[in-house]
Amino acid sequence: MKKLTTEIIINAAPQKIWEILTGFEQYPTWNPFITSITGDVGVGNKITVRLEPPEASGMTMTPTVLALEKEKEFRWIGHLLFPGLFDGEHKFELIDNNNGTTTFVQSEKFTGILVPLFRKMLDVNTQNGFSLMNEKLKELAER
Residues with Cβ < 8 Å from 123, sequence gap 6 or more? Predict the structure, then answer.
């Protein structure tokens, strides 16, 4: 198993951040890492997600939505070919700091027999993609 976690404090309420995070049609205009999310975004549904990690090949995947709790959490799980090979459970979490700021946590837990082969790409490209997205989200939310 491999887990990546990034977090950033945003000077905005969870409501504003959630609005940006779930405004999927706007992703191509601001999100440098996840360039699109399409489909019926609801728990149990498959969606289409396009990832563009910095300095790596992009990929389109069709994960299943596991959680969608307004202003708190959005989570999905995707599989490379079939479960157990290379699985990623991606999570966005918004924590209200009750002082006008929100801690935005983006994480992913990778499992499967191919995880060791992708370790370097995950540690560098994917981690950098998370950080770039977090910074852009902060920039938008604080305008």
Answer: 4
Beta-sheet strand order (sheet of 102-111): 2-10, 102-111, 87-96, 73-79, 64-69
pLDDT tens column, 76-99:
999 998 899 999 999 999 999 999
100-114 mean pLDDT = 97
Q: What 3-state DSSP class applies to 19?
A: helix
Q: Phi and psi of 19, rounded to 5°?
A: -60, -45
- Look at residue 81 in the predicted model and tell me its pLDDT: 86
Please, are residues 63 and 90 in contact by the beta-carbon 8 Å criterion? Answer: yes
Average pLDDT on 1-13 reads: 97
CATH of 2-141, one of 3.30.1330.10, 3.40.50.920, 1.10.10.10, 3.30.530.20: 3.30.530.20
